[in-house]
Every structure is written in C-alpha cells, then in structure tokens.
Amino acid sequence: MGGLKDLAVLQIQAKGLKLRPIPIGTSGDLQVGQRVMAIGNPFGLDQTLTLGVVSALGREIQSATRRRISGVIQTDAAINPGNSGGPLLDSAGRLIGINTAIQSTSGSSAGIGFAVPVDTVNRIVPQFISRGQSARIDLGFDPIPEAWAANLDVPKGVIVGRVRRGGPAERAGLRGLVRQDRGWLLGDLILGVNGHPAQDLDKLLDLVEAEAPGSVVTLDVLRRGERIKVPLKLETGG
C-alpha cells in the first residue's frame, strides 16, 4: 500500500474468469470541462456509473498520512462513500484517475470529488509490485520545523537543519544549522528543484518523488545570502 498517495495494489483471484483490463489513458493533457465517468459501489450499490466533467485540475488534498497529494483531478461526477478506489474514465473509457475523496458537509456527494491522476498511478504502482511499497526518496537531512521557519525573515522554502552523516545531502555539500557563540547560523535554504519552486517540505518531496531514484536533480539554494545551484543524487531509503 501507499498511504502517501492514497493508493494500493490488490491481487485478484479470478477463478477462471476472463477479465479484461481497462485501457490506460493519460492525465497530462486533461482539460477542464472534459466529460468523465466514475464507476464504484456507492453505499453498497455495486457497478454504479455516474457522469460529470473535469471541474478543475492541479488540486491538492491530504492523504491518510497527512501528506498533501498534488495534481489531483476535481470532478462533479457523483462520488460517494464506496466510490473510493474506483476508476475515473474519459469518454473513450480510458482510465484517467482513481477516485479517492469528496468534499462535503453532509458526507454525501456535493459535486466536489477528487481522483488521483493516472500518471501518478503509473509511476507509483510498479514500485508497489516490485518492492511492496513505493520508493521513498531520502534527501539525507532533517529540515527545521516549518513553525520555526515561519518566524524567520527568509523566503519560502525548506531550511536544512541537521545533515545526516554519509547521506546524499552531505555528499552534495549541503550545509545545516550551525550553533555559534552568539546563537545559530541558518543552514541552506532550498528554494526549488530543477527550476520549480519548493515553498515547503511537502512541495519539495512532491518534486523529488516525481523523479526517478538514482537521478540527479538541481537544487536552487540560498546560502548565506547567495543563490547557488547544488546537484543532488536521489537515493531511496526506509
């Protein structure tokens, strides 16, 4: 399972049945207003299909582990308890997302449903199958708490706190928080990855987890008032 993205892989015992897989589409070229269909078992009513459109793209929701899931599809196709885990299809019947949550004051559909995009599914699921879990990128440092950073007069980003010995951050030359006689000297402030801004830790993790383990990313870093580029090799751990 993968609580970080609210996804799981199930092995089905077909018992001789001939099952046909749903054609896999793409979520990278979806348009607001595009017709979609949701299939699920709302309130135990199996094989229910509802129609709607893509209401918005690039939404963020919170997973069960309280990590934000970015790039989520919003739809007004009716999604209720029992729809979670079901497919969101385009008008050609291709999988474009996995229905995951609703926003509602009553607990029933209010026309605001969310689906994890299929491009995320295609990236994460093979890791579940091969490893039993998704690959977790280990950057090799512990950031200072965001509550502390909010009280500092610095740009939005991730401040490196403790650099772990022998890890990717140390090999890349990242600098952590340093104690001095008159207080603390701030560590490197990571502003972005490969030119994309990383306003907080969730966004930083989203950006690096979108890259293949073993690849090298370029961190945009503010160090002692100077902006520099720091290459860092992505390694997995935990």
Name the CATH superfamily assignment of the largest domain: PDZ domain
Low-pLDDT sequence parts: none
CATH architecture classification of the largest domain: Roll
Structurally, the number of domains stands at 2
Sequence of strands across the biggest β-sheet: 1-2-3-6-5-4
Please estimate the helix content: 10-25%
Determine and state the CATH class of the largest domain: Mainly Beta
Total beta strands: 16
Relevant terms:
238 residues, mainly beta, Thrombin, subunit H, Pdz3 Domain, six-stranded antiparallel beta sheet
Structural write-up:
The model has no long low-confidence stretch (mean pLDDT 85). This protein has 238 residues and is mainly beta. The chain has 2 domains: 35-131, Trypsin-like serine proteases (Thrombin, subunit H), CATH 2.40.10; 137-236, Pdz3 Domain, CATH 2.30.42.10. The protein is built from 4 helices and 16 strands. A hairpin with a 4-residue loop joins strand 4 (87-90) and strand 5 (95-102).
How do the strands and helices of this protein lay out in sequence?
Elements: E1 35-40, E2 48-62, E3 68-75, E4 87-90, E5 95-102, E6 113-117, H1 118-131, E7 137-138, E8 141-143, H2 146-149, E9 158-163, H3 168-172, E10 178-180, E11 183-185, E12 189-193, E13 196-197, H4 201-209, E14 216-223, E15 226-233, E16 235-236
Antiparallel strand pairs: 1-2, 1-4, 2-3, 3-6, 4-5, 5-6, 7-16, 8-9, 9-12, 10-11, 12-13, 12-14, 14-15
